[in-house]
Write a structure and sequence with these properties.
Distance between the termini: 30 Å
Number of strands: 12
Helix content: 10-25%
Order of helices and strands: HHEEHEEEEEEEEEE
Largest sheet: 6 strands, mixed
Radius of gyration: 19 Å
Shape: elongated
Structural class: alpha/beta
Strand order of the largest sheet: 1-3-5-11-7-10
Length: 176
């Protein structure tokens, strides 16, 4: 259920249900307030997620309705390997973090948020982007709004030391 909003099954089911409701209204004249029902269910899901989002893993950072800046210098803690962000702004600065203190994989799940990722130029990094109605700006001026994309900070012949997976739903994601 962690990647529910970024899965093709969820979005495909949502489109099918919307199509069926349009057909029911056109054929039988029955008006179902389907969008309001789905939106209400989404709000209930987000509310329950917020109430039960206690950090079960010590290396998970959950941010709701706030702003957060993560860097080795400012927090004097190692960089977390899992960030869950909703209706918030986060800045992850990896420039000052030595390669031996970085986790091998960082996952960023962002819903209606702004995420700024500053990579370390000395650490070969691969960034996997899964975007759903998002605004993604890459250093090579490419953009991704819907779909999957892969960005590498170094040449493809160099094996990446860090893998970043960004799952974005209606979010802004910028890589520096």
């Amino acid at each position: 259920m962690k990647h529910l909003f970024s899965s093709e099954i969820f979005w495909g089911t949502l489109i099918i249900i919307f199509g069926v409701s349009v057909l029911i209204k056109a054929i039988f004249g029955i008006d179902l307030p389907l969008i309001r029902i789905i939106f209400g269910g989404l709000l209930i899901y987000l509310g329950v997620s917020m109430v039960t989002s206690f950090n079960k893993k010590s290396d998970t950072r959950t941010i709701w309705f706030s702003s957060f800046s993560s860097s080795q210098q400012s927090i004097k803690q190692p960089i977390k390997d899992d960030y869950r962000v909703a209706f918030s702004s986060i800045r992850i600065d990896l420039r000052s973090v030595p390669a031996d203190q970085l986790p091998p994989k960082i996952t960023i799940d962002a819903h209606c948020s702004s995420v700024h990722l500053i990579t370390n130029p000395d650490v070969p990094t691969i960034i996997n982007i899964n975007a759903s109605f998002a605004s993604t700006k890459l250093p090579n001026n490419d953009t991704v709004s819907v779909g999957n994309s892969v960005y590498m900070t170094h040449d493809q012949t160099i094996k990446p030391e860090l893998e970043v997976n960004a799952n974005l739903v209606m979010s802004n994601f910028e890589i520096y």
